[in-house]
Write a structure and sequence with these properties.
The protein has a single domain, classed as SLC41 divalent cation transporters, integral membrane domain (Tetracycline Repressor, domain 2, Orthogonal Bundle), CATH 1.10.357. 77% of the residues lie in helices and 6% in strands. The protein has a two-stranded antiparallel sheet.
Length: 201
């Protein structure tokens, strides 16, 4: 794989990538990443298990946990795909004022503000229909919104860092960024959600 560059804003290089599409090259790039992410997922399960009492006491949280971390991972994956496309096209630089970077980050945050309140209301409604939410609607709504927006900010940061790391180590972001973002969001999602629960519930 090789990199092509040209001058970009603020002296940063606009980058494009050429990839060697062979089984050996893909395996060499992906295997270490997947092994590391397996350990990350184990950590996510351990963190989730430590909050078992809170989950059992508030069934709405049982519904909210997978939806929240899944939605955050999806938002991060969409951003990763868009940055990867810009990377391949050579229109992405990593300058603070880069329009592609800033525009996609802002769009991701705007989506989170729109989506997570719906997630909260939906989780509360499903929990109520299936035996009781354990928390009032306004609390679940606030937890979903606060944790969702915080997760979106973290997902943007992780995606930008992972994409830049792929560039620096001459890896194809299509291979590594989305798995990294989704797995890291799983861990951060559990932690952020239960910090929000402790503060707001």
């Amino acid at each position: 794989m090789g990199l092509r560059g040209a001058g970009g804003p603020s002296g940063f290089e606009v980058v494009a990538v050429t990839t060697e599409w062979t089984i050996r090259a893909i395996t060499r790039a992906m295997l270490p990443v997947l092994l590391a992410l397996t350990l990350v997922e184990i950590g996510s399960g351990l963190v989730l298990g430590s909050f078992e009492a809170e989950l059992l006491a508030s069934p709405a949280l049982l519904v909210l946990v997978p939806v929240t971390i899944g939605t955050a991972g999806n938002l991060g994956s969409v951003l990763a795909a868009r940055l990867s496309t810009a990377f391949h096209l050579g229109t992405l630089s990593f300058a603070a004022g880069d329009d592609v970077l800033a525009g996609n980050a802002i769009a991701t945050l705007a989506l989170s503000i729109t989506v997570f309140p719906v997630v909260g209301v939906g989780a509360w409604g499903l929990a109520t229909l299936t035996g009781g939410a354990g928390l009032p609607l306004e609390t679940v709504f606030a937890i979903a919104l606060v944790s969702g927006v915080a997760l979106a900010v973290l997902a943007v940061a992780v995606t930008v860092v992972a994409t830049y790391a792929a560039y620096r180590f001459e890896l194809d972001p299509d291979d590594v960024v989305v798995p990294v973002v989704t797995n890291v969001c799983d861990v951060l999602g559990v932690v952020v959600l239960f910090v929000a629960v402790r503060v707001l519930a």
